[in-house]
Structure formats: C-alpha cells, structure tokens
Description:
By secondary structure, the protein is mainly α. The chain is built from five helices and no strands. The chain has a domain at about 15-95: lambda repressor-like DNA-binding domains (434 Repressor (Amino-terminal Domain)). Helix 3 crosses helix 4 (about 70-75). The radius of gyration is 19 Å and the shape is elongated.
Amino acid sequence: MKMTKKKSKPTSDAVEILHRRLVAGKPVRMAELEQIRADDAVARKLPALRVQAGLSQRAFAKLVGTTASVICRLEDAEYDGHSLAMLTRIAAALHRRVEIRFVPLSDTKPGGVRASRSAA
Length: 120
C-alpha cells in the first residue's frame, strides 16, 4: 500500500508557506526554531525591563554587577548564552524574580526528539 502525503490547505501567507517548507514535519528544525524563539523572547524582555526602570546599559550593568558589553550581548537576539544565574541576578537588581514555565512545543509529542542542546 502506497502512503500519500496529506495535502495542506492552500495559503498565500508567506510565513505559513516558509513554515511548511522548512520546519513542518522536521523535529530537529522545530526544536531549533523553538530555541531561537526562546532566545529572542529573552533578548526582547531584557531591554524592555531596563528601559522601564529608566536605566542605560551602563547603569544597568553596574546595578547587576557586570559590564555594559555583557548587557549588550544579553540584549542581542543572536546571543544564545543566557544563563539562569545571570537572569536571576538581573531579576534581583530590578526587584523581580525569574519564573520558568514548561510549555508544549507545537507539532511535537511528549518523549519526542530533543533539542540539539539542553534546555534544562
């Protein structure tokens, strides 16, 4: 018996088209995309918190106990070295706490393929 691929509903949404071609049905790529999304979320949140506190990168760095170049790297969406220890220091400097949530990945089931690097 020959298996056929299920046809997707036609779309003109460019993001959906790219998702179908590059990510859908590819667990490793999906895991990489989820990691990129997580890095991006942190990179967006940090400058928002800093600006909300009325701090420059230099003043923020001094408050956290690091350098402005480290803060600059942490606020870069391309940076993937966020550590829980550093995020906790940042939260403490801003009188906040870090919360971690485990949410299901789209298109994957529990016990599926692991990301290429540890997310824990």
